[in-house]
Amino acid sequence: MRTKIIYLANPNNPTGTIFSKSEFDTFYQHVPSHVLIILDEAYFEYAKDNPVYPDSMSYRYDNVITLRTFSKSYGLAGVRIGYGFAHEDLIASLMKIKLPFEPSTLANAAGIGAIDDEAFLTRTLEHNRRGLQRVVTELGVRGFKTVPSEANFVMLPLESADDAQRLTQALVERGVIIRSLANFGLPSCVRVSIGTEDENEFFLKTLSEIF
Ligand SMILES: Cc1ncc(COP(=O)(O)O)c(C=O)c1O
């Protein structure tokens, strides 16, 4: 086998789905120890309170590196800061080839400050939970299927790629940008991000106007 790296996102983008610890373990048993598994937990905070969701900080394998970001729940995408953790031997190997440039001092300060600001995170997660619930419920009322999401977006499987294209186009013409997922290999699906309350309501109102 020539595979060198396996990249897994948990929660996954664009489906918003998660895998459990036992699902990961079943998969892991088939991965040779020389293969690096990159575990992308960009949406970790949104899923962390789900008992089925495994926090990879508390299960460590020597060939797994976890990556997290402040771009999502902490709202710091423009700051470009994140963190990772892995076995010290793996980190030591990475250090040998890593470019010498670090995130800026200000970016580091923003990341550390964000971790300390528990109230902000709690507020953000609560806001997202409510918004997601509202959008999913209202989509259901309008006859749309949704994939159960553990992130700050939700995926809608539509009947066809044409439907996905038409819906994306009709919405963008009315000022709402959703993501068509053709580039993800899911041409009949779209992804809707949860926004502010006003944005969510505008999306739902616009959807009603289209149909
Ligand atoms: C799964 C996943 N990982 C990583 C990122 C990007 O994170 P960052 O802003 O830290 O580069 C995204 C952003 O869309 C994402 O969906």
Which features would summarize this protein structure in a list?
Aspartate Aminotransferase, domain 1, alpha/beta, Aspartate Aminotransferase, domain 2, 211 residues, 2 domains, four-stranded mixed β-sheet, binds pyridoxal-5'-phosphate
Q: What are the SSEs and their pairings?
A:
Elements: E1 5-9, H1 21-28, E2 36-40, H2 44-47, E3 64-69, E4 82-85, H3 88-97, H4 105-116, H5 118-141, E5 153-157, H6 161-173, E6 179-180, E7 189-193, H7 197-210
Helix pairs in contact: 5-7
The chain binds pyridoxal-5'-phosphate (PLP).
Account of the protein in words:
By secondary structure, this protein is of the alpha/beta class. The protein has two domains: 5-116, Type I PLP-dependent aspartate aminotransferase-like (Major domain) (Aspartate Aminotransferase, domain 2); 119-210, Aspartate Aminotransferase, domain 1, CATH 3.90.1150.10. It is built from seven helices and seven strands; from the N terminus they run E-H-E-H-E-E-H-H-H-E-H-E-E-H. The protein has helices at residues 21-28, 44-47, 88-97, 105-116, 118-141, 161-173, 197-210, and strands spanning 5-9, 36-40, 64-69, 82-85, 153-157, 179-180, 189-193. The strands form two sheets. A four-stranded mixed sheet has the order 1-2-3-4, with no helix packed on it. Helix 1 links the parallel strand 1 (5-9) and strand 2. Helix 5 (118-141) packs parallel to helix 7. The longest helix has 24 residues, at 118-141. It is globular and about 55 Å long. The protein starts with a strand and ends with a helix. The mean pLDDT is 97. Bound molecules: pyridoxal-5'-phosphate (PLP).
